[in-house]
Amino acid sequence: MESLEGSLAELRQMFKSGKTRSVAWRKNQLRAIIQLVRENEEKLYKALYQDLGKHSVEAYRDEVGVVEKSASYCLSHVEKWMAPKKSRLPLLFFPATGEVIPEPFGVVLIMASWNFPISLALDPLVGAISAGNTVVLKPSEIAPACSSFLANTIPMYLDPAAIKVIEGGADICEKLLQHKWDKIFFTGSPRVGRIVMTAAANHLTPVTLELGAKCPAILDFSSITSPSEKKVTAKRIVGGKWGPCSGQACVGIDYALVDEKYATELLELLRITIKKFYGENPRESKSISRIVNKHHFERLRSLTKDPLVAASIVHGGSVDEEKLFIEPTILLNPPLDSEIMTQEIFGPLLPVITLNNIQESIEFINSRPKPLTIYAFTKDETLKDQILTRTTSGSVTFNDTMVQFLCDALPFGGIDQSGFGRYHGKYSFDTFSHEKAVMQRGFLFELEPRYPPWNNFKLEFIKLAYNYNYIGVILLLLGLKK
Amino acid sequence: MLDDHEKDIVDALHADLSKPEHESTLYEIGMLKNSCKVALRELKHWMKPEKAKTPITIFPSSGEIVSEPLGAVLVISAWNYPFLLSLDPLIGAIAAGNVMVLKPSEIAPASSSLLGKLIEEYLDTSSIRVVEGAITETSALLEQKWDKIFYTGNGKIGRIVMTAAAKHLTPVVLELGGKCPVVVDSGIDLQVASRRIIAGKWGCNNGQACISSDYILTTKDYALKLVDTLKRELESFYGKRPLESKDLSRIVNSNHFTRVAKLLDDDKVSGKVVYGGEKDSENLRIAPTILLDVPRDSLIMKEEIFGPLLPIITVNRIEDSFDVIRSGTKPLAAYLFTNDKRLKEQFVMSVSAGGLVINDTTVHLAVHTLPFGGVEESGMGSYHGKFSFDAFSHKKAVVYRSFAGDAAIRYPPYTKGKLTLMKALLGGSMWGIILALLGWSKV
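^ inputs. structure came back:
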């Protein structure tokens, strides 16, 4: 077992050698990731089931498939992304050329979270490799089977001198953060995000923080009138709340906002859909994840300890401590100052808050920390416009949930307490690259007025040149301008 | 504001830095006006949402990326280009639609005061404020929660700014400095190269600029020729008594004067002076000074000089200079003078810096289509032109979906069949999808 310092030294050396800069190396590593995931599919499902009780469909959809797709996308585009991008230069500098060249940062640290322990580790890794960096991956210890899988399997497929997995808990994190990295990519809670950024500040290390926040779902039933559309809405809400890791997802729906006129109808639709998805007895359903560990189980249970909150439960509420299972639970109007409405829930409890009319949802959201995503189900173009222009969030999705995660062409990241920086698709490549500006000039075409000793002529020349007033410049040179 | 008060600005810069009018016009006023013009011309285009393709797996849908202001931003500026480094970031923040506080540097008090006065007079004070002051005021500002902090200055304070930002998870742009090297190859037009080096060193606030050439690397064979040409051109620019030349800025204050003078104190260093070296502590002036082959471990080679001293380090082969550069931290800029194509390629490939310029120095600052920023110790983030707009914007991803196209395979109860179909769908193979639907999948 190498020491941390030894590992880092090896990674620095590897980066310095320039091997990770080549297209061939990057593509090989990306292919290896695809191979790793394909050849170990069953092992991955087993680890994800062990850590979180995920069904293989959920595991494929949210983890295995995501990584495969990501790596394939980068594989087909990396060469294009690596190419220098020409920049147009003003005529004043003719015949100079300008371009922007992406360079890897160097040795990067990726810290993954436990709720999507495979994709939140490997998806950033795909970006870091595409950009040509060497990497230390620190999987979450809260998902030990997956962490172990990654630590054992990655060295068998990827270049061990360039990509290392270091397992461990808070003490390992602390040690890692004391070292100098060229970039840190962190997915997790705002609390730890602060610790990471503070440590990074010591070394002026740039960071990307993918954090979380309460993601609201605005449900405008006044514009969604047909029964089929309502059914689809209900399916997408249930799918977007309990589908991803039983609500333990930064992009999952945290709470819902609905016009009080439609509250009863909504609750009924949700109940029917939950039953359809998870059966009469969700505890027996294999299609829903469990809570990751005792600590989070207790945390979630304590959210409903407050009698006023408990009284607002209108569906579900039962728990199984041994199985770490909490039933899909809906609450109607819990007190707005209760913990369940002020903290990110990260679990299978869905508060539904009623408003006098749905326009109030904008004010409601704006008076709270900016979310990672706002979901809005509406066909009202005016409301869509208002949501877009009068709220701020990492992203907005209309009439569906979670799908923005699948879009390689869209940046995925937060704002304010939900983080900064972004990735997915080319944004992954960019987030792990330094964009170096390169300007080339020749020795001809000297601009005399650049040089001292200064005089009025030179001053006038510079003023005209800066205004790109080329005619003026010519006139001045010809002695025709004062 | 810039047009109306050009003279006042020139005067303030002269009071703070003895900056020659020409430099103030070129580097501060001229560049700022240009920045404004570019922003005014391009703003509509920058603000337009960008369409984004959405994958077939969520057909029918459409996507776009919308630029939004971040909110309340803090711009902390530096003393060497007090107008440029205050207003240029401000232009970006304004273009992106933010509200802002500007904290100019107290080390350039006349400029700080003039900025406060002019901004109040010309700009919308309900959204743009100036807070003057020093450490106390800056610390108080840093305790507040900002949506973005833009800092120009040195690495030590940069760390303090980022640490304060971390408490509120505030993203930052740090424009710092570094030792910007100039590699001078043989077989070039030495006169033109020397003039460009001089313009980028002493012509930029007398070397007190983050992108000034800090030191030169050249071969042992070429060094003397270079020194001679530099001497000749320096004399033609600043005359025989450069300490008295009106075309050079002074050292900003006695603290910095002492700091720069100290770099020459070392015996092993002072003996290497081949030109200049004169100091006038009363007027805070140090003459353009060239040194040849100072020890690599001397203070002048370890710290960013930020002054009118230019050490020349000689190497055996010109390629060795890249190793010297790489042995230090990554600078804000690196320069190379050569006609050798292969050397250019090697330079671009192996030297990492914020920006590179071949056959000139510092000019990339004026190009609004190139991102201006550092890497590693020289900073993070970039600006100028659209990069300024982007630095102060949040790019919000938006997905529009319809109610049609709802795939049952997304939803529980999960089955093996759904898994197979999902794989085919995500894998993008139409044939795989058809087969899976027909139940004849190979998977």
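The CA atoms of residues 36 and 172 of chain A lie 26 Å apart. Chain A has three domains: 1-212+423-435, 216-409, 447-478.
thumbs up if we can close this ticket
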